[in-house]
Amino acid sequence: MAIPLMTPYKMGQFELSHRVVLSGAAPTATCPSRTAVYYSQRATRAGLLIAVATVVSATAQGYPETPGIWTQEQLNKHEGFLYCHMVEPRMAIVDGHRQIPHRLLPFRKAFNGTFIAAGGYDRDEGNKVVAEGYTDLVAYGRLFLANPDLPKRFELGAPLNKYDRSTFYTQDPVVGYTDYPFLDDSTKNNL
């Protein structure tokens, strides 16, 4: 049986190999050179990565050395929207299980392009919402942060690394961003 999150998807001119999206979150502000490492660790063939801190004017930079798109030529290249990326309202924990409110349906119905939902999804819930047509793609932040090979882990049904919330938004460009083990690394340690 096909795993919904691992099925291909055509988004405009892009042929995605799976529906697991990296939500924007990287050590850009603290160490721009580590941003390339962060994104390259999580890149997959024909996967979608949503970059963080793309500023729209030279005067809108919140942090030095953040990437941006602000020339008139760059802005005029983009006609219409390729996708709509929305975050579910806060999830609740009921009887030890995540309960996602699924309140994005009106927006999903109103938008005719690719719809990306985020907000506390795990593998099972992500598969469910893709299979039911609630969303086209599912964006993962914390799970992708802790599992640089998240699509592979989802495909194999492999265990996930736990993320360490205490390392979120720290000044250290490595700890909590690029130091999580890949599946191959963790299985070698468990043999």
Outline the low-pLDDT stretches. Answer: 187-191
Which fold does the CATH topology refer to?
Answer: TIM Barrel
Total strands: 8
Identify the CATH architecture: Alpha-Beta Barrel
Shape: globular
CATH class equals Alpha Beta
N to C succession of SSEs: EEEHHEEEHEHEHHH
**Average pLDDT, all residues:** 80
Rg, Å, rounded: 17 Å
Please state roughly what percent of the residues sit in beta strands, choosing from under 5%, 5-15%, 15-25%, 25-35%, 35-45% or over 45%: 15-25%
What distance lies between the first and last C-alpha atoms, to the nearest angstrom?
Answer: 29 Å
Order of strands in the sheet with the most strands? 3-8-7-4
Number of spatially distinct domains: 1
Structural class category: alpha/beta
Family: Belongs to the NADH:flavin oxidoreductase/NADH oxidase family.
Domain NADH:flavin oxidoreductase/NADH oxidase N-terminal: 5-79, 84-160
Keywords: Fatty acid biosynthesis, Fatty acid metabolism, Flavoprotein, FMN, Lipid biosynthesis, Lipid metabolism, NADP, Oxylipin biosynthesis
Pfam families: Oxidored_FMN
Quick take:
Pfam families: Oxidored_FMN. The chain is of the alpha/beta class and about 190 residues long.
Structure description:
With 191 residues, the protein is an alpha/beta fold. It has one domain: TIM Barrel (Alpha-Beta Barrel). It is built from seven helices and eight strands; from the N terminus they run βββααβββαβαβααα. The strands form three sheets. The protein has a four-stranded parallel β-sheet. Strands 1-2 form a two-stranded antiparallel sheet. A two-stranded antiparallel sheet has the order 5-6. A hairpin with a 2-residue loop joins β5 and β6. The protein is globular, with a radius of gyration of 17 Å. The two termini are 29 Å apart.
